[in-house]
Amino acid sequence: MVESEIREVHDAGFYQNKTAYGEEHIARVILYSSNIAKMEGLDERTQQLLTEAAKYSSCGRQTDSVERHEKYSSTLAAKQLKEKYSDGDIRLIQAAIELQNIGMSMGRQEDKDRIISEICTKYQIPENQRDTVLKMSNCLNDAIELDRLRFVDKAQANKEEKFSLFRLQTDSSKKLIQSSCYIQEQLAEQELEERKNQANITYDSSTKRDIMDKFFTEKIMGMPHRTQEERITESPLVRLEYFKTKYPELVDVETNSIPVKQETSSKEKEISEKQEKRRQQYEQRKKQLGLNDEPVIALDTLFHEQEILEQLGITEEMIEEASIGYRR
Fold this sequence. Notes:
With 328 residues, the protein is mainly α. The protein is built from 14 helices and two strands.
C-alpha cells in the first residue's frame, strides 16, 4: 500500500527537493497513521481518507524548516484529488490537514474548540462529521509526531523538531513509540552499514567524547552540562547524525531510493517539468530565507515495516536493545 501511495505523490512532483520532509517522511506518516487508525477503530472509508490526508499533509511545504504551510497544503490536496473523491470527502481531507498542521496538542481547551469550529465552518463540515475530522487530525498528528523519533535529541535542537510524548493525542500511538523507535534505529543502522564505503568512523572513547561535546552538552551559568548519558553514543541514530555532521559533503549522496514505476516518454517529460518547476520554487524560497537543508535518515525498505507493525513480531528485549540510551 505505502509504495503505491508514494508513487502517486512522486508522479505529481511533490516532496522531490526535501530532506527532512520528503518522500521518506511521508511514507512513514502513511504507515503510522494507517496503523493508529486501525487501532483506534476508524471505519475503512475514514481510513482511506486519512491516507490521502497523510499523503498530502506537507505537499505545500517549501523548506525543511518550521513553516506554516497548512492552507497551501490543503489547497494543493484538493486540486490533486478533485477527480478521485466527492467534494464532501475532499473537504474532510482538507480540514484534517489544516487542523493537524495548526497544532492541536497544546493550549487551552477553549482555544482548541474555537480552532476546530473555525476550520470545520471554513470547509463546510456538517456537525455530525466534525468528530470524524478531529479523529483523522489526531491520527495524522500522532503519525507525524512518531516520525520525529528519527531526530536526535540534541541539547540545542529546535524544540519543534523534538519528539514529545505530550503532543500525542491517542492512546494507540503511545503503544507504538517503542516499535517506531526500533524501526528508526534499524533504518539508521542499515544506512551506516551502506555508508562504510564512503567513510568509516571508529567509535572509540575519543569519538564518543566528541559526540557528547557536539550534541549533548549545554552551558548552564558558564559551566558545561551533559543532557544525556554517554551510552546514547551507541545509538545508530546518533552515530548516523555524527557521520553526517563529520562528513557534510556526503549528506546528499543517496544510498537508497524508493522504486518508481517507469512511465511513457511523454508522461516522463511532464513529470520532469513539474519537478523542475517545484525545485526552482524551492531553491528560490530557500535562498530568500537564507536556509540550508538539514540531513535526514534515509529510508531503505520501509514497505517491509508494515508487517512489523501489523504482526508486532518484535520482542521487548529487541526493542530495548535497539533503543539503548534513546530516551526523551
